Amino acid sequence: MKLSFTLSTESINNLIKSLQLIDDKIDKISELALKDLAERGITYIKDYLTMYDLGNSHIADTLQMVKTENGYQLIATGKQLDGGLCQAVLVEFGTGIKGSQTPHELAGTNGYVYDIKGHGEAGWWYPTDTNDKNPQKYVTTDGEIIAHTKGMPSRPFMYQTQAKLEVEMKEVLLKYLKAAI
Fold this sequence. Notes:
This protein is an alpha+beta fold and about 180 residues long. The chain has helices at about 10-50, 60, 85-95, 95-100, 155-180; strands spanning about 65-70, 70-75, 125, 135-140, 145-150, 150.
């Protein structure tokens, strides 16, 4: 008795077709998992902003989930400020002497600087409006509303969202893999 099999161009082509079907399924599973994670991310960002009493802020109003070539990008900006920064960065990392006392996890790795103008304990005044929750507000003789601050602590809503999504990533991917089998 003899056992044998034949390798042919046809058998290789059939294998390639099978592999392509698997590859297409993997692409679809990846897309579904990434979209699921991005949608969860937007929800988590909103939850963290609410936890930090920023649920109705300009930052919450600017949340976006943008489809990219490689997946999704979650974006929060808030108001655009002088110097090219956006409000979301200042909230995420904190500012001034208060921010330096409770620094963001990534502040040392990305060059972010607290109390950049050296105000220290003296703090500074900034222009604001009646919606500002800062209790240290003052109306100038010109009618302008200003408020005093020593900065604000880090409120890392994006960092916390990313960490939460990284924990859930495997579970989400497995959910879509099981559904495809």
